[in-house]
Amino acid sequence: MLLVFAASAAGIAATRLLPAHPGMAVVIVAFAVAGALVSLIVAFGKLSGGHYNPLITLLQLLAGERSLTCALAYVALQLVGGLAGGALAAALWHAPPSGAGGLGPYGAQSEFVASAGLMLVVFGSARSGRPESGPFAVGAWLVAAVIATPTGSYANPAVVLGATVTAGPIALGSGSAVTYIVAEAVGALFALAIVSIIFPASKTPL
Asked: CA-CA distance, 79 to 3, in Å (whole number)?
């Protein structure tokens, strides 16, 4: 919830405070997302693993690192949190959800790359023997990916869902949302295939 809130509210704030410089919204959102995510992972990592992305949860399930029951509980709450965060940002800024936005089918390649890159950084950090580097590596990647990708690197179905009920630069229409989620899932599976080769793991499911 707090991650999506930060991404959405930062975008709304940027467009209102800097109306003459719309391109700055991307940079502001990039640093807001990275700052929020790093702090949340550091704060809650010891408790929950500190991941707020259904893609990570499902890849852990496929890799045998998490049980089905645990994975389903995580994904359900991640999605609910995404919706709550998007709605909270819109409410606090008195910005009615636009119900539109995104690149539609043209955003699929962007979200594939963004999600594959994020999963490689997440699982590479976890399996490299330096898990403490994970929060900062993820934050650094997201700054780059939000700025570098045409879609702004949602790379998270919970963020996509939250974007459908909010306003500002990250707001999405339902058509774009479906396309993005499918592309993200494919990108995540592609990353898992690579990670399984270069960082083979053998862990007991939680």
From this structure: 12
Helices (H) then strands (E): counts for the chain:
8, 0
Q: What is the pLDDT of residues 67-87, one digit of tens each?
A: 999 999 999 999 999 999 999
The rounded distance, in Å, linking the Cα atoms of 199 and 126 is 9
Query: What is the C-alpha to C-alpha distance for residues 105 and 68, in angstroms, rounded to an integer?
Result: 31
* Phi/psi at 30 (5° precision): -60, -50
| CB-based contact 38:136 (threshold 8 Å) | yes
Q: How confident is the model at residue 100 (pLDDT cuts 50, 70, 90)?
A: confident
Which residues have CB under 8 Å from 133's CB, separation 6+? 125
What DSSP character marks residue 60?
H
Q: Which of 69, 68, 95, 76 is nearest to 11 (CA)?
A: 95
* Residue 89: strand, helix, or coil: helix
User: pLDDT grade, residue 204 (50/70/90)?
Assistant: very low
CA gap 175, 101 in Å, rounded? 9
pLDDT, tens digit, 9 for 90 and up, residues 156-187: 999 999 999 999 999 999 999 999 999 999 99
Cα–Cα distance for residue pair 108/29, rounded to 1 Å: 20
Could you give the CA distance from residue 79 to residue 43 in angstroms, rounded to a whole number? Answer: 20
Residue 151, CB-side half-sphere exposure with 13 Å CA sphere: 30
